[in-house]
Structure formats: C-alpha cells, structure tokens
Amino acid sequence: MTFERPHNLTRALRAALLAACALAGGAELAWGDVVYLKTGAALHGEILKQDDATITLRVPYGTVIIEKIHVKSVEKEEALPAMLGEADALIKDKQLDAATAKLETILKQFPDSATASEKLVGLYAGRAESLRTRGQLLEADKVYRRILELAPGNEAALARTKEVDKIRADSSAAQKEARLLVSLERYQEALEIFDGLATFIPGAAEENSKFIAEAHAGYGRRLLEFKRFTEARDHYEQALKLNPTLLSELKNEVVVARFSPIVMEMNEKGKVLTQARWEALASQVRGLIALDKDNIHLHYALAVCCHELGQYGEAGVEYARVTGEKPDLGKLPESLGPLQESARKKTSESPVVLSLARPHFTLVQPGPPQILETTHFVIHHNNDELALLVAHGAEYYYERNYKILLDQAPENPWPRKCHIYIYRTKDEYLKNSRQAAWSPAMASTSAVGGVFESHSIMTYQTVDELLPSHLAHEIMHVIHSSIVSYSSATPTWLREGLAVLQEPWFKQMRMARVIRETHEKGGLRELDQVLDQQGYPDAEGVNLFYSQSYALVEAIQRAGTKEQFLEFLRQATKMKPLDAVKQVYGLSKDGLTASWKKHEADLASLLDEP
Questions:
Q1: pLDDT band at 356 (very low <50, low <70, confident <90, very high)
Q2: Residue 418: enclosing H or E segment and its boundaries?
Q3: Are 462 and 364 in contact (CB under 8 A)?
C-alpha cells in the first residue's frame, strides 16, 4: 500500500496516515465510498480511479493509493447517514419493530457500521427481556443469540444463552433434579425446572406430566395457605388438566380455590356487577355444587346469585337447602328476606375448615432402627420409604447448600459422615435431643479445641415439612459449622438466620407474615435485642426471633458479594458481629439497621403480591 503526495513520505508518516485513515473509518463520515481492508480497518473517502492493481482514494488528509491485495471489499455509503436517521425517527416514535427491521437492512448494506450494530443490540436487549418476562423463553433465546452475533462479548446475552445451553446439555440431570424436588415437596422450584425443560426439550412436558401435575397441585396447596386463591385455582386447574384422577384427592382444595375468588368478587363488587356477570357467577357455582353437593356455602352463594337475577323461586330453594326450612314460594319475593337472613346466619356459624396438612410416614417398622448409609450421611430410621427420601434429599441439600456459600462442595470437607436420627415419635425425639417442645429438629457438632469429633441431626418421622424444610435447615447448620472450623462462637441469630435462608419460599413467607403482624402491634425487636439474644427465646417469642434473624442475615448477605459473606461468617466467630459487619462491608450500626428494617418491610410487602 502506498500514499501519493506531491513529495515523498517517510515510513513513520505513512503509518500515521494509515492509523488516521482507520480512525476516520470508524466515524462513519458520508464521503461516498468505503474501502474495507483485510486488516479490519475501513477507509472512507471518494474513489478517484482504480485499476486491476490499485485504488486511488481521496480522504480528508490527502490522496491514498491502496494496493488491491490488501482490500477486502469496496462499497458505496451515501445512504448510511440518512438510513440511520430514519431508524432513529422510528425509535423515537416507539415503532421498535420497524426500527429493528430498518437497522437489520442497514447492516446488510454496511456490515461494519458500529452505530447501526449498537442501536440494534439495544433494541434486541429490550425485546429479549420482554419475552422472558412473558415466559416466551425460546423466543427470547433466539434474540439473545442474535445479540451475540452483533456483540460477542455482551454479558447479559452470554449469561442467558448459557442458562439455556445448560438445560439442553444437562436435560437428563435437570429432569432428575425436578423430579427429586417434587418428592421433597419443593414444588415451585420443580415447576421452574420443568418449565425450562418443556420450553427447550421436545416431549419433556409429556414425559414428566405425572410429576408436573403433582407439582401444580402441591404448589396450589401452598398458595391457599396465603389466600392467593386465584393463583391456587390456576395451578389446581393445571394439575387436573394433566391428571384428572387427582380430583378425588383434591376435591376440597379445588372447591376452595375456585370458590374463594367468586366470594371475593360478590362481596367487593356485588353492587356494580352486571346481569351477565351474575349469570356467569351462578354458572360457576353450579359447577362447584356438582363437585360438592352438600356444601352449604355453595348453595348460599347460588341463592344470592339467583336473588340478584330475579330468579326468586330458585333462590328460595337454595336458601332453604342451607337452613333446612321449607320455603314459602307463594309469597315471593317478600318471603326471601327472612329466609336469606337465616341462611346467612347458618353459613357464618359454619366456617369453611380446610386442612392442608398431609399426614406422612405414620408407619413405624418394628424392632430397632435400621441404618441406611450414603456418601456423606448415615440415616437411622424405622420407615424405609422415608429413609430413602431423606437419603436423596440429604445428598441434594449437601451439594446445594455448599454451592450457596462456595462455588461447589469441597472434596471431603467432613472428617466423618453425619448421622441423621429419625425417631419414631415426637416424645422420643424430645427425650433424646433434650430440646424445647417447639423444636421440630436439631443439629449438633462437637469439637475439642477446634478439632472435629462428630456431628449429627435429630428429628422425628411424623414432623410436618421434614423433607422440604427442616432437612435443608439442619444440613446448613452442619455445613456452616465446618466452614467456620467448628467454632462455637457463632451467635444464635446468625446460625438460625442462615439456615432459614435454605428453606423454601413458603417458610419465608410465614416469617414475613410474623414480621408484618408483629410490626402492626408495635412488637418488633430492635437490633441490639436480636444481637444480644443468648440461646433461644421461649415458645412465645421463638417465631419472631427466627423471622427477624432471617431478615437480618439476608440483609447482610445482600450487602456484598458471596466472598464477602463467607468472610463475614468467619469473622463473626472472632469478633463482635457489628465489628465484623464494619470490617467486611464497611457498614455502621445505623447503616446495618437501616438495611435490615428496609428488608423486613420488603419481606412483609410480599404478602401483598397477587
């Protein structure tokens, strides 16, 4: 390549001009022609002449003669600024699809246009996140991959596509994990994995339909606890769609989930409902009566619907089914008033009682405890079915909980296996563990002078939520102890708050409810009261202590990185917790208090979400 000037050029000046030429190319000036070099540079100017060997290009700083052996391509670019302007106008008018199409056209003509590429990446990023929000993950994945074609180093697109690639590569492992989570009653987490599999793996939904139905039913049951009736209803509908045979088992729950939104609508909007809406509600209630014909609350609701619709005869019959009286159909609608009041009183005296508890593992095998040994645990039990689930769950929580604190479980972190004692009854558990009556499970680690001796977990086989909650909680205690070199100096609030973090969403929602209810009564503890707690409070105060400890630990965890949190856990055994927070995070006591209280308020607000 040579540069033509009225006088000879030095090699240094030629290099300088070449660099300037490359810089000018990045500015996308409308000189008319662009010469793309094989080095990746683009020279902008006006072609004065060209032959088989060279191109003569006028540029802002003179004339350049370029040898064609260095040239990749030559294009006209008069239209580029105007086309970019058109794209900008479309973006300004919120015509984003049209703007995207225009920018794609520009890049076909001018593939090295950095401005067009940058604008297009921005539009695609917004589209991809919108698709993800709407649950259209496959479509979002396609958009992210287009972003990577335009900007290979885009961190958000790299992260999102890696998630998808992992699901596709590890679909067998993901399916196994999702099914295990169903058996561990962690239904929400299972559904998230199943949704990913169904999106990216053909036939995955059909293959796992039995487990997905169980997960929807279990998740619906949890939602009922928090009076999220519409969400619960939708999950029950999904469960029954996949497995209609579940209806006999779920009848009462399904009726409550479907009926509660109807009652709320009648109570809140009854005065403004149209006739068509009353007819729709009446039809829905009739459908529920077909499932539960002896439910007086359903008959009362149907009577109200018919009353509003002027169907007085049917209203009288339905009110009478509630009260057991004989309706006076000869004096309608006047006779409905007393009958309605009598029916209303009867339903108010007979509230709906729905037990969501599921009795598990009541069978006790005779004889001494059996032993089931896994890689990291030794399980002592009197129920083979429960022991097998605990074995799978314990190893799963071992890997999972270590990954929460470290990138992965270290090799052979425990000198000896952890023994899990599952006692036959609560009384037997309390006798051997010497715990307070409110305790569902416990973990203990013994060490002398920082040298490990043993660790164990104790619980009983009929305890509620052993698999989804208590097992994860107690295993985190054991892991936490090993990470801080078996120090006994960790404060109680930190031990318990960290362990609660490993429990499923519904346990954390219960704690959010405790925080809200106690706040409304003005009974929340101050920071010093939580930090200074020695041992455990009495049964009356234990739920609040756990709830506020959980909120405090999560607030600290969110204040920095995983590495900082791990360092904090270790420093908290060597100095006062406030000093450890100051040293690791730079937070003062007031700063920590503000973060904690804000997080408590955020947790309580979760109860308001639909």
A1: low
A2: strand 418-423
A3: no
Structure token pair of residue 352? 């709906």
| Of 17, 53, 57, 60, residue with least CA distance to 36 | 57
Which tens digits make up the pLDDT trace of 324-355? Answer: 888 777 788 888 888 899 999 999 888 776 66
**Fold annotation for 92-168:** 1.25.40
Q: What is the CATH number of domain 370-608?
A: 1.10.390
Q: What band does 317 get if pLDDT is binned at 50, 70 and 90?
A: very high
Cα dihedral 513→519→520→523 (10° resolution)? 120
Q: How far apart are CA 279 and CA 491, in angstroms?
A: 60
Long-range contacts for 162-171 (Cβ within 8 Å, ≥24 apart)? 164/137, 164/200, 167/196, 167/197, 167/200, 167/201, 168/200, 168/201, 171/197, 171/200, 171/201, 171/204
Q: What percent of the chain has pLDDT over 70?
A: 92
Give the span between the Cα atoms of 102 and 90, in whole angstroms.
Answer: 9
User: With b meaning 16 or more CB within 10 Å and e meaning fewer, what string describes 432-452?
Assistant: ebeeeeebbbbbebebeeeeb
Comma-separated ranges of CATH 1.25.40 domains in the chain: 92-168, 171-258, 273-348
- The conformation of residue 288, written as its DSSP 8-state character, comes to H
Beta strands (DSSP E) in 16-157 are 33-37, 42-50, 54-59, 62-67, 71-76
Cβ distance 590 to 549 under 8 Å? no
Supply the pLDDT for residue 1: 41
